[in-house]
Amino acid sequence: MSKKGKIVKLVLALALVASLFLTGCTSNGDNGSNGDNGEAEASLTGQRVRVVIGSTSTGGDTYLTSDTVTRYLSEKLDFNGKVDAIGASRALEEIVTTEPNGETIMMFHDMTYLGVAFGAYEDRYALENFIVGPRFAYSQLSCLAASADAPYNDLAELAEYLEANPNEVVKIAIEAGGVSQLVFNSYYSWVDETYGDEVSSRVRAFISGSTDEKAQALWDGNCDVMFGDVTALEQYVSEDVDAQIRMKIVGITSGERIPGKDYKTFAEQGITLGGEPFVFDKEYSVFYPADMPQSIIDEVDAAIAEIAEDPAYIEDLESMGFRAGYLSTEDNQEHMYQKRDSLMEMINNSPSLDELTAE
């Protein structure tokens, strides 16, 4: 081969090596979110985002709050978000198995950890197995209601009524494994500590389903008190309502009275848990699969922090009875773990629901 031909081959070989080297550098930057090589960080912008929720109802509190914040988030971050009401079991399964690419996130409330705490769901769905994101709303509306003609006007009077009437039993309609069971167990524990087993043994659970089903059980005389949300039950509180279905709110679990309402809180009635006033606001949060890119977590945090200050968002929530209440991912993680752990002693020490359920 001529000297000129050898030089040409050498130049081509060097060009090939350079090409492979540059290709390798480029491909190495595609699989991460490190901004040092100019690659874009992971983002929800431009994506179709499926928001699974722990409810099958499209008219309940979980859907209403999640749909509201999803609409605002979609506009703020320029993605196509859609709420999918698939229920608690399926939503939890999705969040522990889905790919952490931003295409699927979960929005739910305290049932997220309470279901596991009460044994309704497996330990694989514990908070430690996915990421607690920011809080975007909370509710002051959780309450217990009784028929309007009940011989007590609040929960403290109910305990006194049972003490004075040893043959009476009060059945409280709840759903197993969630917020309503927590509220029932907390009230039962307070009655037991304050009045003893002779009275608390006559506070019984009546296992039911939706708010409508619990209300029907109350009207049919199958229970005496029911768990629900103020917004759903206020239609039955008015004096204009037929006496057969009229109700009264006998206690709300929030730490403060609902503005403009006269419903007493558990705390101001003297109901305590572990020596402290019993307060429980239902809180609504975003949840991510494990290993979700930090860039997505950060952009959602920043967006919800802004949305929570938007007067239109605040008004939309308050028109449905909810409150805007942002907590960052970092703060909400600490808050939710502490909230869960503070309730575990009561949950673990309470009798099983089988023992507390009315025959």
Describe this structure as you would to a colleague:
The chain has two domains: 48-138 and 281-347, D-Maltodextrin-Binding Protein, domain 2 (3-Layer(aba) Sandwich), CATH 3.40.190; 142-280, 3-Layer(aba) Sandwich (D-Maltodextrin-Binding Protein, domain 2), CATH 3.40.190. Helix content is 43%, strand content 19%. The chain has helices spanning 3-30, 61-77, 88-97, 111-117, 155-164, 179-195, 197-200, 211-219, 230-233, 294-307, 311-319, 329-349, 353-356, and strands spanning 48-53, 80-85, 104-108, 130-139, 142-147, 170-174, 203-207, 225-229, 247-252, 272-273, 276-277, 282-289, 322-323. The strands form three sheets. Strands 2-1-3-12-4-13 form a six-stranded mixed beta sheet, sandwiched between helices. A five-stranded mixed beta sheet has the order 7-6-8-5-9, with helices on both faces. Helix 2 crosses helix 10. It contains 13 helices and 13 strands. With 359 residues, the chain is an alpha/beta fold.
Brief summary of the model shown:
This protein is α/β, with parallel strands linked by helices and 359 residues long.
Which helices and strands, and how do they pair?
Layout: H1 3-30, E1 48-53, H2 61-77, E2 80-85, H3 88-97, E3 104-108, H4 111-117, E4 130-139, E5 142-147, H5 155-164, E6 170-174, H6 179-195, H7 197-200, E7 203-207, H8 211-219, E8 225-229, H9 230-233, E9 247-252, E10 272-273, E11 276-277, E12 282-289, H10 294-307, H11 311-319, E13 322-323, H12 329-349, H13 353-356
Parallel strand pairs: 1-2, 1-3, 6-7, 6-8
Antiparallel strand pairs: 3-12, 4-12, 4-13, 5-8, 5-9, 10-11
Helix pairs in contact: 2-10
